[in-house]
Amino acid sequence: DQPPAPKRYLALSMSSSWLNLANQTAVVTGAASGESKKSIYLLGKCHFLTPPLFVALSTMSGIGRAVALALAREGCNLLLADVQRNDLNSVASACCQATSYNISIQTSLCDVVDKSHVNEAIAQADRIAMGTSQSSCNKASILVNSAGITRDGKVSNISDRDWEDVIQVNLRGTFNTCQAFCETERVVSLLTSGNRVGGSIINIGSVVSQYGNVGQVNYSASKGGVVGLTRSLAKEMALLSCKIAEENNGTNRITPAVRVNCIQPGFIETAMSSAVPNKILSEITSRIALRRLGRTDDVADLCSFLASSHRSGYITGEVLECSGMLRL
C-alpha cells in the first residue's frame, strides 16, 4: 500500500550564516514517535514493569525530534518520516519555528519495514533537493535512522512475534532505508556536484549492543546488527566512491561520497524519566562517569557534526558512544 499524501510545511524566515549544512536535504526516520514505550526496565536485581514507570537503555523518545530541530536550525531541508501522523505534524511545526532559514520541511507517513514506503520517502526527499538546491546536486545528502522499537522481557518469555517485530523494525528497517539511499546515481551526483557536499548516513544504535542488558536479547541483537551493517556499508561506499571518482576524470577526492557512522546512546532523559523513582535514577547515574542522564540534544549535536562533510569528512565506519561513559 502506498503511504498517504504528505503534508508540507515551509519555514519562511531567512538569514545568512556560515553553517555548512544549509541547502542540503536530510531524511530523518523516527522523527516523531521514536522507539516504543512498551519496555521493561531491568538492571541488576531491579525489575519494573511498564507503563507507568520505566527507563530503557537508549530509548529513542525525543531523539528523532531533537535531531530534526538541530538540522533545521542549521538550514537543512527536511523530510520527516514516521508512522505517527499527529506527532509528525507537531515536529514539523516545531522545526518551522526553530529555524531562521528559508527551508522546505515535508513529512511522510512511512513504515520503514515496507520498502515501498521507504522508496517513496527517499524519492520525496530527492524531489525536495531538486526543487531547492542551489548547486548541481539534486539528491538528498543526509539520512538519519532513529526509528526503532523495544519488546523487552526475559529470554524465556520473548515470543516469536516479539523477536521478529524488533528485528524487522530496528535492523531490517535500517537496511531498507540505507539500501534506498545508497543508489549509485546518488553517489555519482554527490561526487560530481558543483560543491561536492558529500553524503552522510547516521544510524542510531545503542550501548546495549556493546554491553548487553538483562531482558533485551532481541533489542541487543538488532542494534548489534546495525553496528555490523554500518561498518560494512561504510567500506562499500568508500570503494564505490573511489571507483566512480576514477571514472569521472580521476578526481582526487579522498572523502567518500557517502559516509556511514553509528551513534550509540546510553540512558537518555525523556519526559517519562521524571516519573522513575529516585532510587532507580540514583542507581543508573552511579554507573555513569558524568553522573547524569544523557539529553536528547547531546545525541542531536553529535548527529549534526556527523552530518557535515566539512566537519567530519574524514570519519566513516565509526561507532561513537554517547553515554557519559556508562559502565554496566
UniProtKB/TrEMBL annotation:
InterPro entries: NAD(P)-bd_dom_sf, Sc_DH/Rdtase_CS, SDR_fam. The keyword Lyase does not apply. GO terms for molecular function: oxidoreductase activity. Pfam families: adh_short (PF00106). Keywords: Oxidoreductase. It comes from the Eukaryota. The keyword Oxidoreductase applies. Belongs to the short-chain dehydrogenases/reductases (SDR) family. This is Uncharacterized protein. It comes from Cyclotella cryptica.
